[in-house]
Structure formats: C-alpha cells, structure tokens
Amino acid sequence: MSSEPLTTVPRIPVPRGGGAEARRPLWVSVEGINGVGKTTAVRTVAASLRSRCLRLEELTDQGADTLSGQVIAALCASGDVCLRNGHPVAETLALLALKFREFECLTPDLLEGVEVILEDRGVDSVAVCQGAILHDEHPATPARAVAERILATARRWRSMPDATLLLTGDREVCLSRFAARIGRPLPASALHVIEQTDHLYRELAAAEPDRYTLVDVSGLNPHEAAVAVEGAVRALLGEREVSRAW
Does residue 235 register a pLDDT over 60? Predict the structure, then answer.
C-alpha cells in the first residue's frame, strides 16, 4: 500500500439531494485550555440549535464502549492528565488517527438537515498539546514548529474546520476549575504543558486570523460564556448566508 497521501484532500460530505458546496454544513471547532469552558459552551449551543447542529464530543468524553473511548482509556492508564505514557510520537499519531476517523464517519445521511458541525476540540488541540509535549522531549525543536508540523500532517488527510473559536480566559481560574473537576491538584509537569498550549493556541490564532476567532470569556460564568460562543456561531452562520447570496 502506498504511503503517499490522497491527491485530493477529503471534504465534508454534502447531505443527500445536495451536490453544491453551498449545502455543505459549516464546520466550527471550539478550542482552548482545560477549564476554560469549551464543553459546557458546546453542549449549550448544540442544545439551542437543536437539529441544525451536529455536536462532536471531545475525545476524552466519548463512551468507554467506543473505539475512541478505548484508545483514550489506554492513554489515561498512567493517570497523567495530559495523556502521556512515555511514547509521545505514538500518542500523537493515535490522537490524530481518532480525529481522522471522526471525520471519515460523517455521512450524507448523518448530515441531513445539519447547518453547523460543532466540534469540542479539533485537530488544533492535538497540535498544541502534543506540540508542547514533544518539545519537552526534543527541546531543540521549537514547540510551534512541532505544532505546525502536526497540523500540516492533518491537512494532508482531511479538511480543516471552516472556523475555529478559541476561548481565552484567566489561566489561573481555568486551572482551578480543571483541578476541581478531576478532583486533584495538577502536577508541575501538567501545569507546564497547559501553559505551553495556551501560548501555542494564541500563536496559531495570530498566524491564521481568517480561521480563528478569539472569544474572551474572562470573568464570565458558564452561562454567559455559552451565550458568547453561541453569538459567535450564529455570526459565522450569518456570514455564510451572506456569502451564499453573492
């Protein structure tokens, strides 16, 4: 079997009866560090949009009876909150493979009536988190260079989100929420990785302003943050409608 990537990058399928690119659902990924409120916001927005929205759960929230859940359980076996088991390259490829599979599982029937796919952590999460981890293993290579290499690999095998919402907030508040959620203090090594991912997210957003939209949720409660994210999603849908009209 050839190791060369596909000459045409797979695209999100069009619902049956369609055929025009304009009918393809808008793909929006929601990113940000642990504890910033991504999952709460995504679930709230998806519930508000109902059948117009297909929600893709974060890999770590998928059921233990699913392939993703089983792979994540294996990566969590050491108890490390950053899914580190001492094999960072293999772990990176495993996480990318799960994101590729998630993309490949989208079918025209599944997308019937869907206007927006809302993804809780996309390939950008894999890039920044594993970029930070791999940089620690190979400090001579800048973390951003590693993250960009991971994204370049992803782009060869699947299309990127149409838009990415990066939730930003007070890092200490986010880390406190995350520690409370998992029920234990975060070790210094995990704090270092999360700090690096925060920096990498912001660097990638600055490099791709057409795809990234920053949503500052500092000082907002979960409901207010969800309202802000929903406003951003609805604005993106509105922009798409305007572009279709032209």
Answer: yes
Write the CA distances from 4 to 78, 114, 155, integer angstroms: 34, 33, 13
**Over the Cα atoms of the chain, what is R_g?**
18
Query: What are the tens digits of pLDDT across the range 115-134?
Result: 999 999 999 999 999 999 99
For residue 78, give both structure tokens.
């050491």
Q: Phi-psi region for residue 241, left (φ > 0), alpha (ψ -120 to 50) or beta?
A: alpha
Per-residue pLDDT at 1 exceeds 50: no
204: Cβ contacts below 8 Å, ≥ 6 apart = 124, 127, 128, 144, 147, 148, 151, 212
Q: How many Cβ atoms are within 10 Å of 159's Cβ, its own excluded? A: 14
Of 81, 128, 118, nearest to 226 by C-alpha is 118
